[in-house]
Amino acid sequence: MTDKIPRHIEQNFERGESPHEMVAREAWHLLGIMSEFVDATERLANIRPAVSIFGSARVPEDHPYYALSEKIARLLSDAGFAVLSGGGPGLMEAVNRGAHAGRSPAVGLNIELPREQFGNTYQDVSLAFRHFFARKATFVRFSCAYVVMPGGFGTLDELTEALVLIQTGKSMRFPVILVCEPFWRGMLDWFRDKLVGEAMIAEEDTELMHVVNHAEEVVEVIFRHYQHRSFAPSPSERQSFLKL
């Protein structure tokens, strides 16, 4: 092998896959991601305004977080918002369940995972993703607000990614609402103590998040944010989505 061939390609070549075969396989992989974007665009083009709600897949139906998630989704649905969730069990199910009972569509952006993920039965519109990248970009592109319920790594990933995109101007500024202040208190204290205190972020960056405890407050925060602007992104904001 020559030094011009990257080591990861050389290793596959040693296992019987040529560089050309590997490049072709990766090209098909990219086409798969593109097809997910196309499908999501076609299916969700007319489902707006929409709010995404995130939360743990591990919360049982009898937990207070489940009831609160269902209530928030129902209020948003009756207020005219399509409601997006990850489509799985736990709080994602609660979200789709609440929206499904309301006036507006319940949407599930399902992802293939080795465990935890199975589609719930309360989805009016269901999309299937194999790639986290395409799924996460779809949440951002079609949402006018993020509502973040208690959750684990996946929920934190969606939260911090939204904050980065807003902070860096890669997406329009939209409400990011943390629900259940006691759950988030330690993280927010750490943000102020360590991230602001050691100049890792600006103090005003902490204002990108709203913290509430009640379902009605979620709807109030969203309508207050959009009181003087459209729910739809502006032409310049649409352009920024292309640079995610």
List the topology elements.
Blueprint: H1 7-14, H2 19-44, E1 50-54, H3 64-78, E2 82-85, H4 91-100, E3 106-111, E4 125-129, H5 132-142, E5 145-148, H6 153-167, E6 176-179, H7 181-196, E7 209-212, H8 215-225, H9 235-241
Helix pairs in contact: 2-5, 3-4, 3-8
Would you kindly provide a brief summary of this structure?
With 244 residues, the chain is of the alpha/beta class. Helices cover 49% and strands 13% of the residues. Helix 3 packs parallel to helix 8.
Q: How would you describe the overall organization of this protein?
A:
The protein is an alpha/beta fold and 244 residues long. The protein folds into 2 domains: 1-45; 48-241, Rossmann fold, CATH 3.40.50.450. Helix content is 49%, strand content 13%. α3 packs parallel to α4. The model has no long low-confidence stretch (mean pLDDT 90).
Provide the domain count. Answer: 2
Major sheet characteristics: 7 strands, parallel
Strand content: 5-15%
Q: Indicate the overall shape.
A: globular
Features:
49% helix; seven-stranded parallel sheet; Rossmann fold; alpha/beta
